[in-house]
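Reviewer 2 asked us to include a model.

Predict the structure of this chain.
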Amino acid sequence: MEKFPDTTVSTLGECRYDSPLTIPDFIADTERVIADVEFDHLKEYLDETGTVRWFENAGPRKKIFFNPAEVKAAIVTCGGLCPGLNNVVQNVFNTLHYQYGVKTVYGVRYGYEGLNPAFGHELIELTTDFAEDLHEKGGTVLGSSRGNQYPAVMVDFLVSKGINILFTVGGDGTLRGSYAIHEEARRRNLPISVVGIPKTIDNDILYMHKTFGFSTAVSVATQSIKSAHAEAKGARNGIGLVKVMGRDSGFIASYVTLASNDVNYVFVPEVDFALRGETGFFAHLEARLKRKGHAVVLVAEGAGQNFFGEAFGKDASGNVQFGDIGVYLKDEMKKYFKERNFPATIKYIDPSYMIRSVPASAEDAVYCVMLAQNAVHGAMAGKTGMVVGNWNSYFTFLPIPVATKSRKKIYPHGYLWSMVKTATGMPDFI
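Predicted model (structure tokens):
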């Protein structure tokens, strides 16, 4: 059996202060959330090792590490936009200010650039008026950027401003940068808590049921499918082609397919497919058009990258730059039907930026409140180098390296992809 990673969360030291929270129940540091959901997996691991796999239960602690009167906190948003970023900023501030009585909370401008004085970005001191209506806005009021800065420079900046708690909101690259800041502070023996709040619209962080923004993305993308379906049915041999986000994981595309009931073909990064040949996609598409007169095709941005040959380099965050599979499919479909002298009309829709920049849905808004509050509870208790997760209906604390070890992906032979194939009726294109 594969060895389970060490899920012990680092702490800054003894918690000596009473929490100012007036609640009936606190979470003890000894409380655990079982990692194995299925009984057979739990029993197998228990029989083999004598223990169970677990995550630390998130929530408020009765004793905290920091004296709230001495806390200066900061929050930074990094990477691409995602529904819910402003909700997280708002609720980190509200929890610090109203529940713990922290007087100074900064917003860091433009991602990790804002922790490097060379860029000249001034900190924003957050206030109740500033935070009041953030949940109504899409994007991030703090601004964002891609790419890390030198950990030593960022820690120097935190020290110069007297900041002893840093909240980082971003995907796996941001979280790795967050851990580098934590490691540099630990190397210097500085009592600085660094807590990550996972943000990825793709829902691809390990050991997390979902990440914020995903539910909103699915909802908005589903509306695009309705438009594509109407366009396809409005033309003879009409094809509605929609591209959604999903660099390495096809969760958005899969959930949109299940939600819409109008998708006939869906392509994700985890499953290879052929375009030409008797068992390829184009032959099946042509047969459907002859039979039904229309089709809706959904593709995740990371699907079919094998068609492009060599990689296009990397962006500032270290992500491999992908070829545009949506445009590629559109052009190749045009070529195919022209070769066949088959009249087809293709309408291409790319709602990517609309999906990621809208305000959070009600479901995501609630989720952001819970993530933000638990992040603050962990930070005030002196936990560091950690990320807030959600597992088996519980919120958890887990070390950043555990969450960033690899990406969560769709298993091609698993239940989710089986449901997608059943919903569409499409075969394997090999």
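The chain has two domains: 10-211+360-403, 217-357. The mean pLDDT is 94. We have added this to the supplementary material.
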